[in-house]
Write a structure and sequence with these properties.
The protein has 380 residues and is an alpha+beta fold. 26% of the residues lie in helices and 11% in strands. The longest helix is centred in the N-terminal third of the chain and has 52 residues. It starts with a strand and ends in a 5-residue tail after the last helix.
Length: 380
């Protein structure tokens, strides 16, 4: 180790001491930058005593530089005793604690982020229903009646669902004009001169982004909104039979063109607003559906028998039919009855368009009788 010993008058001593302190603060870990070339620096204040006793006749500051000590750790000046470097680093325990804290914060924030995203998606789905509500009322202003849920008749006639009728009022006039309504069946229609299905066109206004399913089934773009037939009786698929317990609550027979509980039916009958005697603000017009959980909804927006005018409030809200191989057939998507209930991917319920154009989120815990009352157009 090098030892730097300086002597000077008292005032100059203070100046040099200050300079040494300044250099000491420039170092890392409490040691000076000068330490890189001179291992240890010591200012000998005893020079003041020597100067006071006239030991030095020359008052100029003298620098006495000693060679490295040969006495070793015992006899020499130890660097560790003069300049001890502070070492800054994480221990393994501290590092693990930091990682654990970060993990906890992420675990706390992730549900909040997911909830915020779902709230944004739900708002988008709500806006879609409002657009459909505006289209319905514009249609009614032009034709003085609501469009039929679908035109699907026993004689084989299949002229599309309510979605096709609303296309001009959803800023899709050009798409509407691609269909030839003079034909008895427009299902499977293609763009002129091509093999491309018109129904393969994805319409964002008919898709709820909360639904995680694919965007198309069998080449047909999906839809997440269906016109309600209210608490009306439904079919049973003999190949996927479900003896559901809500049959006795049906307020209208199956597929009657004159007697159906809700504002829409799939057999071609159109309803006037005056027939909705329960009040537009108290009647469900459209509700959310999930194609992954319904064989009818999988048919796409352009097909006739796609659940519009057939989906019902008879089945409890959000009744789970999303399984393809559930032991209970009533939990499968293929039974033609429980699968046409309204449901959504939103936690706790689904959104509905009411007759006055408003959108309401209805909890899946709603009283069953109240739900049926919302579904009916004139049941008091």
């Amino acid at each position: 180790m090098f030892i730097l010993q300086a002597t000077a008058p008292i005032l100059e001593d203070r100046f040099i001491l200050d300079r040494l302190r300044l250099h000491s603060h420039r170092g890392f870990g409490g040691c000076t930058a000068l330490d890189r070339t001179v291992e240890t620096t010591v200012f000998d204040l005893r020079s003041r005593e020597r100067f006071a006793s006239n030991e030095f006749t020359d008052q100029r500051p003298q620098l006495l530089v000693a060679r490295p000590s040969q006495t070793g750790a015992k006899g020499g000046t130890s660097r560790s005793r003069i300049c001890k470097r502070d070492r800054f680093a994480f221990t393994l325990v501290e590092l693990l604690v930091v990682i654990a804290v970060i993990g906890i914060l992420i675990a706390l924030l992730l549900p909040a982020v997911q909830a915020a995203r779902e709230a944004a998606r739900r708002m988008g789905c709500s806006n879609n229903l409002r657009q459909i509500g505006l289209a319905l009322h514009h249609y009614e202003l032009v034709y003085k009646k609501l469009p039929p849920g679908a035109i699907w008749k026993p004689n084989g006639e299949a002229k599309g669902s309510v979605h096709i009728r609303l296309l001009p009022f959803l800023e899709q006039q050009s798409l509407h004009d691609q269909f030839d309504f003079n034909q008895p069946v427009i299902d499977g229609s293609t763009f002129p001169g091509t093999n491309r299905l018109i129904g393969s066109t994805v319409l964002s206004v008919l898709v709820c982004t909360s639904d995680p399913g694919p965007s198309a089934y069998f080449g047909l773009a999906k839809h997440n909104y269906a016109a309600s037939r209210g608490p009306t009786a439904v079919f049973d698929n003999p190949n996927c039979s479900c003896n559901h317990p809500w049959r006795s609550f049906a307020q209208a027979p199956l597929d009657s063109p004159f007697d159906f509980a809700g504002p829409f039916t799939r057999v071609g009958t159109a309803v006037r607003l005056a027939e909705v005697r329960d009040g537009l603000s108290n009647t469900i017009f459209f509700g959310e559906v999930r194609p992954a959980c319904s064989e009818h909804a999988r048919n796409g927006w352009a097909q006739t028998n796609n659940g519009n005018g057939y989906c019902t409030t008879l089945i409890p809200l959000n009744f789970d039919t999303c399984s393809e191989d559930a032991p209970d057939p009533c939990r499968r998507f293929c039974n033609w009855n429980t699968e046409v209930g309204f449901r959504s991917a939103h936690p706790g319920g689904a959104q509905f368009l009411l007759g006055d154009g408003s959108v309401r989120f209805i909890a899946e815990t709603i009283d069953y009788a109240t739900y049926q009352a919302f579904g009916g157009k004139s049941n008091g």
